[in-house]
Amino acid sequence: MPDESVTQAGAAASGRTNRHADSQADRHSGNQEILRASKQADELVVHYPCKYVPVELLAGFGVGCWPCTYEAHSFEEADQLAHPNLCGYGKSLFAYALQPEVHALVLTSCCDVMRRVYDVLSGSGAVEFLWLLDLPHLRGPREAARFRGELRRLAEAFSAWSGREFNIAKACASFVPPVPRVDERVTLLGAHGPLSLVDTCRDELGLPVENGTCTGWRLVQTPPPGLVRVPGPACEHRAEHLGSAARGEDGLDRFLDWYADALLNQMPCMRMNDAADRKRLVGAPGQHGVIYHTMKFCDYYGFEYLEAAKEAHTPMLKIETDGTRQSAGQLRTRLKAFDETLRGMAEAREVAATRRTDTDGPVYVLGVDSGSTSTDAVVMDADEKIVASVIVRTGAKASAGAAKAVEAVLERAGLTDHDLTLRVATGYGRDAIPGMDSAITEITCHARGAHFLAPDARTVIDIGGQDSKVIHLDEAGGVLNFVMNDKCAAGTGRFLEATARAMELDLDEFCRVGLDWKHDVKISNMCTVFAESEVVSLVADDTPIADIVHGLDMSVASKTAALAKRVKAKPGYLMTGGVAQNVGVVRALEDVLGAPVATHEDSQLCGAIGAALLGLESLR
Length: 620
Prior knowledge:
- By secondary structure, the chain is of the alpha/beta class.
- 39% of the residues lie in helices and 15% in strands.
- The chain has helices at residues 9-13, 32-40, 55-59, 76-81, 88-97, 112-124, 141-162, 168-173, 195-204, 248-264, 300-311, 328-343, 345-351, 398-413, 442-453, 493-502, 507-513, 528-540, 545-566, 583-593, 606-619, and strands at residues 45-48, 64-67, 104-108, 129-133, 185-190, 209-211, 287-295, 316-321, 364-370, 374-381, 386-393, 422-426, 438-439, 459-463, 468-473, 479-485, 573-576, 597-598.
- Helix 5 packs parallel to helix 6 (112-124), helix 15 packs across helix 21 and helix 16 packs parallel to helix 18 (528-540).
- The model is unreliable at 1-42 and 230-247 (pLDDT under 50).
């Protein structure tokens, strides 16, 4: 499979690669620097969001093409122009197109969102040259012939607007032959992949990452030698010697006769009626894992992921973005956890091998799990015995909560900081804790901690303050697969706390009262805000509190069971995290999963225990 660096024909035609990661300051802020540079050079750039946009045809007019891989800082303008439930990529396109540096934008009718973006932008007059290419969803000869007509109309309109003449030699020179990759790598598949997502994947993963999203690969075959008198990339340098046959109507028609079919019949996107060829994208030679990207409010690639996850033997991670950088921290956690899964727990242990050399005497390792609600700390000795442990509220700052937890656990252990051999952090706040020797994701740490607490566990269900995780383990406690719900607080500790407040119950009472339920109550909303309103309405209707709480417990259990199904979870189940103390949720999970769900007195400390254990093992 080709790498993105050799398949962005438009970028090659304009003398640029399709990444600008050399500028660290701008790598996550869109394409502004490239746009400014092209404007200063008086170079015309056509922007495009779809692999079916004819960038090679446009290159024949001597222009560069650039994929729309922008992430907006906000959707304020987009929400004013269109419906707020427009997909995140559609909103980001609005923000992108409204930049003053964008003068030419070519869209395709690949989906209703693209049509809506075109309609709104066309009415606003924000873009000087705006074109909607009608894209067939079939790929037969008749569709290719109709597509040829669409390309011809685009070429005529662009020539009239730009005042440029088509040159078949320049068009041919823009093609770069697709080169299959067989090296060890991870493939990013699915919906539009912004540059920041690609960069984050490359930062967090230990293997090379290829961008196979619908704005990453353009698998267009190279033109036949007979299409122009000088074949291959050299033809651009000989263009002035080719005469009128390389220019004008004759060259355009000959090019389109071949090109329309080649462009339409590249690797299909999910909007094509026949997308069966896409099955070859998973499990290719050298592919160690697949990161599958979907876009908020768009289901097409979500459908493909579900099918691929059922059949594929290649490890897969599903991520969702919304066209902004709002979930960047959570995204890095998931990617790093996936990397640790691919490399194996043995290498994760090596990350922690930073033994302090200024300590003498017994070995003590500190494990700190910095979560959104609580920060847990454990001190473990060389015999894997827990010397001391504490659980404190995280509060407003992860670093302050961690400092409080470390101080408390050292005091309880009768130790000082100088006595510690190694300090290992985990959890969302792991990178914000000063003085740590290393950091490992909570996925790997929970897996190791769960295997320590319950060696027979094959599935870890961790429901914390703001997220839920299900981790499928092998017999040695290694991570086979995992899934996280981290887009909102639905089905988490925060969800339960909010609904408990709505019923004026303290958490201890809330955990027990649902066990005495008599009648089924369905809670239809998993959104914390809407569920709270639904609970208030049920209370107003004199619905028994026990029935309401049981309904809430069942809604959390059902959502968690859906996550477990995605990782092919199986017994035995071990529940960790703060919600493990909620016996009502545990019982509901047993009912939904149809199997016992174990807990442990140290379930909430599981992540910190795993961090300490991994630290100990790195010293051996």
